[in-house]
Amino acid sequence: MSPCTYPSFPRLFHALYDFTARCSEELSVTRGDRLYALKEEGDYIFARRLSSPPSTGLVPINYVAKATPEMLSDQPWYFCEINRTQAQQLLLSPANAPGAFLIRPSESSLGDYSLSVRAQAKVCHYRISTAPGGSLYLQEGRLFPSLQSLLTYYKANWKLIQNPLLQPCVPQRPPAQDKWERPRSEFVLGKKLGEGYFGQVWEGLWRGSVPVAVKTIKSANMKMADLAKEIEALKTLRHERLIRLYAVCSDGEPVYIVTELMCKGSLQSYLGSPEGQALSLPLLLSFACQVAEGMGYLEERRVVHRDLAARNVLVGHDLTCKVADFGLARLLKDDVYSPSSGFKIPVKWTAPEAANYRVFTQKSDIWSFGILLYEIFTYGQCPYEGMSNQETLQRISRELPCPAACPAEVYTLMLRCWKDSPEERPTFAMLWEKLGTMHRHLHLALL
Ligand code: ACK
């Protein structure tokens, strides 16, 4: 299935962790249970459990994930955002016993998988390769149509790999979500992922096992008085097309903003990578569609992003993408994120009324989305290449030319995003609908 999804509620979810009801309104679930969400209620979904015995009640939203039956992420043994070291740490944690196993994407061989199995005090890793016809194999000559069938075989014939596959690895539960402020000691920073406008981004581990991204920001650059209020607002924004905020550490320097980790990094760098450069048109459209979906959610809640660009969209293992850094611009002191400071404001992505008069609205986000579409269909090219910010602002028309890979219908949408008059620009709901239709048509045409 393509990572592009369309609106529908109620929705199918599955439980990521065991949850025990604490009152009669809540519903106990076991990891893997399938749930039908009837509505969202703040930090909970009101859901019907489809596994027996069927029952309804509230389940914390951070204990569930949307289920897409065809996707691997639905399987309790599949851990898509985890590397070899993290798999090792998780399997050796007290939550897991010998025989615990998981499958994750291979780090060294793109498109392949690795099976990690706990054997007493150590973890063994096995490469699962893909044969030319698409079948999977762990040992030459033993081919399987799916990871599920491969696992079924090696569970029954575990002597072939000398380690029994007894139960799927138990993931680390997220800590209670009412405690957003966390002690710094809970996070160990690993590799530096890069520098953003406002600080550095690090790969990290939360409590030794949850992979996270940690954004470090100097408090001198931040409106600290507003932090608690803003975080309160940000934590209510939950959508599968938005990066999940996990925690903050605002006690001391630098401030940590902790979010989910996305293994393929930003859409901008992904589009420029060899893998990104080979993407087909349906996938480019799927990215555009997913971003419009996430932004549509922000639009409904009247949240203005202010810095929508491919560098602030992140890509996961299964090519899902999520909008990041929404609301962050508002947390930064005006002189850090201000048109008058010149160099900080991303002029090339900013609507004229926002760049000139600081009028940031949902319609200025729409302008930026048009530029993001340009980035997508040029495979990550910088808009107004070779021009300075000043030159860009002074252009009579800020329209960009139609990229070679861009369908005419998409270019028409771009031009509508760049209407001088903000009211004439479309909404994200409409863009999502239009891009979704184009994506479906293209998909059908290619079948
Ligand atoms: O293009 P990248 O590899 O992806 O480099 C940038 C860098 O940090 C500065 O923004 C990466 N980055 C930011 N947030 C995350 C995240 N949540 N997961 C993974 N990478 C991230 C981004």
TrEMBL record:
It is found in: Cytoplasm. Coiled coil: none annotated. GO terms for molecular function: ATP binding; non-membrane spanning protein tyrosine kinase activity. SUPFAM superfamilies: Protein kinase-like (PK-like), SH2 domain, SH3-domain. Its main location: cytoplasm. The keyword ATP-binding applies. Keywords: ATP-binding, Cytoplasm, Kinase, Nucleotide-binding, SH2 domain, SH3 domain, Transferase, Tyrosine-protein kinase. ATP binds at residue 215. Residues 187-442 form the Protein kinase domain. Pfam families: PK_Tyr_Ser-Thr, SH2, SH3_9. Its EC number is 2.7.10.2. The keyword ATP-binding applies. Residues 77-169 form the SH2 domain. It comes from the Eukaryota. GO terms for cellular component: cytoplasm. It catalyses: L-tyrosyl-[protein] + ATP = O-phospho-L-tyrosyl-[protein] + ADP + H(+). It is an enzyme of class 2 (transferase). Residues 8-69 form the SH3 domain. Belongs to the protein kinase superfamily. Tyr protein kinase family. This is Tyrosine-protein kinase.
